[in-house]
Every structure is written in structure tokens, then in C-alpha cells.
Amino acid sequence: MKGILGRKVGMTQVFTQDGKLIPVTVVSVEPNTVMQVKTIESDNYNGVQLGVVDKKEKNASRASVGHAKKANTAPKRFLKEIRDMEGSYQVGDKISADIFEVGDVVDVTGTSKGKGFAGTIKRHGQSRGPMTHGSHYHRGPGSLGTMLPKRVLKGKNLPGHMGVETVTVQNLEIIEANVKESYILVSGNIPGAKNSLVLIRSAVKNSRKKNPKEVISYEESVVDEVEEVVETTNTTETAETVEESSKEETKVEESTEE
After folding, report:
1. pLDDT tens digit string along 198-207?
2. Are 234 and 228 in contact (CB under 8 A)?
3. Which of 111, 191, 193, 213 is most solvent-facing, going by the fewest CB within 10 Å?
4. Terminal-to-terminal C-alpha distance of the chain
5. Which residues of the chain have pLDDT under 70?
6. What long-range pairs does 65-74 form, CB within 8 A, spacing at least 24?
7. Whole-number pLDDT of residue 252
8. pLDDT digits over 116-137, tens only?
């Protein structure tokens, strides 16, 4: 199991060498700090606690400040524990985007967008009643149960708060992991609003083979084209100046002969 915490930036699209367009989500990944390492001897299971986003000491509790000092770092705003983490880590180690490779299949967990109070049609996908012929039932919740219990049965779909739930999207693919600029491109969409915290970890139900995609990079080609344009403009300017100087010399010679 591998995992890292990051922030959802937004969506974009990239092209592969085969000409395929892949919609991706950009996840900004700051270096995660290993805040605590749990072992079978001390805690009866193996796990690693990750922390990200520094917090001022005056806004943190004494317990969190003491916990962070063990890792020789500042108190963290977000903490997440991952069980059975691959590799050996010590308290205070840093985990960056290179923990994942291109082609890895991952599960992404985040908090869905909040939609406030919603009815049964939007919240549960129920159908509405007839809108004409004198019908007075349009977007109601429907029957609430039978006569005998004389109460609403548990699990009844009713209006209420919608969203702000922990959602996991499974079997997404890592398209690019850039350590220099600290971001990861994940295929498809992931839950949560922009700048929300997400957890990327190895897929639990993955059964497909690793198939890394080669993404087209535009940096080198753009620089080469610019250099070629500059060279061509310089050569044309020098040729024009040479022609103008030769014409001026011929005019001067003609005037002296006369």
C-alpha cells in the first residue's frame, strides 16, 4: 500500500504519443511528513501517519505541538494514517510525488461538494408526479410507510442535507508524477471542490496490468521553434541591411563619376 495527501487543483486534458486525449485531474502534492510510525510490537498493526500543511503553534494544542516536535517539524493541519505502508520509514521522513510511478492504479478519496438541503428528486433520484390535469402532487417525498407500524421506517428516502460525504473513486490511473513542480496527474475526475484535501493510495481492487501512457511534452519543441524564428529574422535583417548598404555605395560612386 502506498499513499500521499494532496490538494485538488482542477481538471485539464493531455495528449499521448498515440494521439489519444485523456481528461486528467491535477493534484498539488506538497512533501508529506511522517509524523508517526506504528508497528505490531507497539500498536498491534503496521501503519504510517502522514501530515501536511503547516499550522502556527499558537493555533495548535499542546499535544499536537509535542507530537510534531518528535518529527522535528511544525504542527500539521491535516493528518492521515495509512496501514501496511510499503517501504521502511522513520519519523520525520518526507514523502513526495515520486512515491507513485506513471501507470500505477490508485484509489482517490475526498469530501464531496456540499449541495445544502435537497429534495428527494435531486437527492435520491426519484421521479416527480404529473404536472397537469389537476394533480396536486409534483415533487413530494411520497408515501412514508404502511399503517401498521404507525411510524416512518428506517432507511426511508427523505429530503435532507446533501453532499459533504467521504467518497472514494476507484481504479484511476497515474498519468504523470512531477517531483520538480510537485503535482500528480490522475486520469478522470475525483471527488471534492477545488483546493480540497484528497488522499491518493494504491488501488484495493486492481486486477489490470500496468500500462503507462507517454504524454506529449511541448516545452522542447516550443523553445526550438522560437530559436529558429529568431535566427531567421536575424538573417533576413542582415540581408536587407547589406542590400541597402550596397545600393547606397553605388549611388555614391555614380555621383562622384558625374
Report:
1. 999 999 998 7
2. no
3. 193
4. 93
5. 219-258
6. 67/35, 67/36, 68/35, 70/35, 70/36, 71/33, 71/34, 71/35, 71/36, 73/33, 73/35
7. 54
8. 999 999 999 999 999 999 999 9
Which among 141, 143, 137 has a CA at the least distance from the CA of 160?
A: 141
Q: Distance of alpha carbon 21 from its chain centroid, rounded?
A: 18
Q: Are 106 and 1 in contact (CB under 8 A)?
A: no
Q: What gap in Å lies between CA 109 and CA 140, rounded to an integer?
A: 33
The single-letter code of the amino acid at 50 is L
Q: Which three cell numbers stand for residue 239?
A: 540581408
Nine-digit cell string for 241: 541591411
User: What are the start-end ranges of the H helices in 54-200?
Assistant: 62-70, 120-124
pLDDT of 256 reads 58
**Residue 230 has what pLDDT?**
59
DSSP of 169-222: EEEEEEEEEETTTTEEEEES--SS-TT-EEEEEE-SS--SPP----B---HHHH
Residue 209 confidence (pLDDT):
82
